[in-house]
Design goal:
alpha+beta, Alpha-Beta Plaits, five-stranded antiparallel sheet
């Protein structure tokens, strides 16, 4: 029975480590039950799990999961902060907790296929989490994006108008797009202007004399 439990423990930890995005090891010596309970709650609130496994079993799980470089940190009491969410979160949660309680002591970590020293884990803990980083990036590009959206809207509106004008010109045989009503109005306006043209010398232009040549010819005949 004891052997079956150990095998199950190894397999479960190996599975968690294999699916993890971020792992941090810490020495929790000096923390009482209440402190550890609070630490677990803080981890869960950040989608991180804090587990304690004997080092002999942890070594087997690390080897099975392929997390090379962590064996050196498996000395003394060891707690594992494991997350499948944001790789920075375990380091941040443990670091924040240690600032308030002086413990736990960071022993090492593992992120993106690399074993990390305690100093490296501490530096990573100072980085913003993924949601915070995304919010910061969106804040930086928000104004330019609004300007870009406005510019694109203006361009698309202008393009739509131009396409509509081209369509009208094609329908009218390639000339300017003028409706029938507009054409008739233009014609009437032209005729009106012609009628209202000023008379030369203040008098109306002389009307052409009738052709009387044909009448004289008839009389002679």
């Amino acid at each position: 029975m004891a052997t079956a439990i150990k095998v199950e423990t190894v397999e479960e930890l190996a599975r968690k480590l294999g699916n993890a995005k971020g792992v941090v090891l810490a020495d929790f010596t000096g923390l009482n039950v209440e402190n550890i309970t609070q630490l677990r709650r803080n981890c869960r609130a950040s989608e991180t799990e804090f587990v304690v496994v004997k080092n002999t079993l942890a070594r087997l799980a690390v080897k099975e999961a392929g997390l090379d470089g962590l064996e050196a940190y498996l000395q003394g009491p060891t707690g594992w902060a494991i997350t499948r969410a944001d790789s920075v979160t375990p380091a941040k949660v443990l670091s924040d907790f240690a600032k308030e309680h002086k413990l736990p002591k960071i022993k090492g970590g593992y992120i993106d296929g690399n074993a990390l020293s305690p100093d490296q884990v501490e530096r990573i803990a100072e980085l913003p989490t993924k949601p915070v980083l995304i919010a910061q990036i969106l804040g930086l590009i928000q104004s330019p994006v609004q300007g870009l959206a406005g510019g694109l809207h203006a361009v698309m509106t202008g393009l739509a108008i131009a396409v509509e004008e081209i369509r009208k010109q094609k329908e009218t045989g390639g000339g300017p797009a003028v409706s029938d009503e507009g054409a008739e109005s233009a014609k009437e306006e032209t005729e009106t202007k012609a009628e209202e043209a000023p008379e030369v010398g203040g008098e109306k232009p002389a009307e052409p004399e009738a052709d009387t040549g044909s009448e004289e010819t008839e009389k002679k005949e």
